[in-house]
């Protein structure tokens, strides 16, 4: 990017750990990106006089003007140091509250409610519209409580589905990115029985092709290695443990055909990986990178993709009991899992604090920590902000590729 990145963060449920994660993490985020927070100011005010806070904070005048069309209240948030240099400004952000009528009297720390659900969803809406319109380079969402959203009258299954409807994206998939393992889920919140009963070669092929295309757009890596999990033990062992692998083999063939290179008058195109690594302008401070020996989501190019045809390679169906270990050692760039727990158990075992939820298919970058609101921890200042910082760092790394995704002109109202 030719300018400093700008991310927008939706606060999540104001009665959960989102406000604490934001306050604790803002000083680490601000050196490498500008920040706008969208959420209920009352969620931060609930934390006043709670013991154990690692930082202090104060509300000031907004540092910049809010985006055009925003109808709530705007503030400036400054996070201040404690200890040897009390009062030193560690981080600051523009704060937009789309529900200023909801205050501390309407909220109870550690408990979701209709009020907290309304504040959560309205914050997501405004933050998403900022990203959708190009007013922000990426969206980071802190955890929401679906039950509270339902109490507020929002009939939404979760962030992914709501953002898909809001943006009009025709297809999305839930991905999880971590230093050692990148996973896309073919199905998400449905019963295992229904996964087996409805498995379809065309649909699995769609997930394979879509996931490969999205990761190529976001990373610039044209020769992506994509592995598909088998459904049955030992990949069915030639039909001994089930015949679904025949359908999965058909899906692999279809996925390969989607990227097949056909000769043209100029001759066949050849794929090549861009030699460029992610760099920020000298005036900017790069976000933290993964430690030595850990790959993470490698971003190879920051501008347009090279004018060459991508040539991802597909492998599988492979037994999932060994596939994730192979992928964690670098044999594959991406694993497509057929159902929720097949993909998330290894992710949460291998990378419990570093796995980041990345939504594929939206016309903007969206990341999220891979955990919930943790109402039982709210106000105790014991929640670990590392996963939130990983989500913010990934959003900044990918913001250099936001130009690969469409940004329609959308008002915030």
TrEMBL record:
<keyword id="KW-0479">Metal-binding</keyword>
<dbReference type="Pfam" id="PF04166">
    <property type="entry name" value="PdxA"/>
</dbReference>
<keyword id="KW-0520">NAD</keyword>
<keyword id="KW-0560">Oxidoreductase</keyword>
<protein>
    <submittedName>
        <fullName>4-hydroxythreonine-4-phosphate dehydrogenase</fullName>
    </submittedName>
</protein>
<dbReference type="InterPro" id="IPR005255">
    <property type="entry name" value="PdxA_fam"/>
</dbReference>
């Amino acid at each position: 990017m030719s300018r400093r990145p700008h991310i927008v963060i939706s606060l999540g449920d104001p009665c959960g750990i989102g406000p604490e994660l934001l306050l604790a993490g803002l000083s680490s985020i601000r050196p490498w990106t500008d920040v706008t927070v969208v959420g209920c100011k009352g969620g931060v005010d609930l934390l006043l006089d709670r013991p154990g806070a690692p930082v202090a904070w104060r509300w000031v005048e907004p540092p910049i003007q809010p985006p055009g069309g925003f109808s709530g209240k705007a503030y400036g948030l400054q996070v201040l140091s404690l200890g040897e240099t009390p009062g030193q400004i560690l981080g600051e952000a523009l704060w937009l509250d789309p529900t200023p009528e909801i205050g501390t009297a309407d909220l109870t720390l550690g408990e979701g409610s209709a009020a907290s659900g309304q504040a959560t969803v309205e914050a997501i809406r405004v933050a998403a519209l900022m990203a959708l319109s190009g007013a922000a380079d990426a969206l980071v969402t802190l955890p929401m409580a679906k039950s509270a959203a339902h109490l507020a009258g929002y009939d939404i299954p979760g962030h992914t589905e709501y953002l898909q409807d809001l943006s009009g994206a025709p297809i999305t998939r839930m991905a999880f990115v971590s230093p050692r393992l990148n996973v896309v889920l073919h199905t998400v919140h449905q019963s295992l029985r229904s996964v087996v009963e409805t498995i379809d070669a065309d649909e699995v092929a769609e997930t394979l092709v879509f996931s490969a295309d999205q990761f190529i757009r976001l990373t610039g890596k044209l020769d992506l290695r994509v592995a598909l999990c088998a459904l049955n033990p030992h990949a069915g062992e030639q039909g001994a443990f089930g015949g679904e692998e025949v359908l999965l083999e058909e899906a692999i063939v279809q996925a390969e055909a989607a990227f097949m290179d056909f000769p043209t008058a100029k001759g066949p195109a050849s794929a090549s990986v861009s030699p460029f690594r992610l760099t920020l302008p000298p005036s900017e401070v790069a976000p933290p990178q993964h430690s030595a020996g850990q790959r993470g989501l490698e971003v190879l190019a920051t501008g347009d993709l090279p004018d060459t045809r991508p040539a991802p390679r597909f492998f599988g169906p492979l037994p999932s009991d060994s596939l994730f270990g192979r992928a964690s050692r670098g044999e594959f760039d991406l694993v497509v899992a057929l159902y929720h727990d097949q993909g998330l158990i290894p992710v949460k075992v291998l990378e419990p604090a570093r796995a980041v939820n990345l939504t594929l298919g939206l016309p903007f970058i969206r990341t999220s920590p891979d955990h919930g609101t943790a109402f039982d921890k709210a106000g105790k200042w014991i929640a670990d902000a590392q996963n939130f910082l990983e989500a913010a760092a990934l959003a900044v790394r990918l913001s250099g590729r936001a130009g690969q995704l469409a940004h329609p002109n959308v008002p915030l109202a």
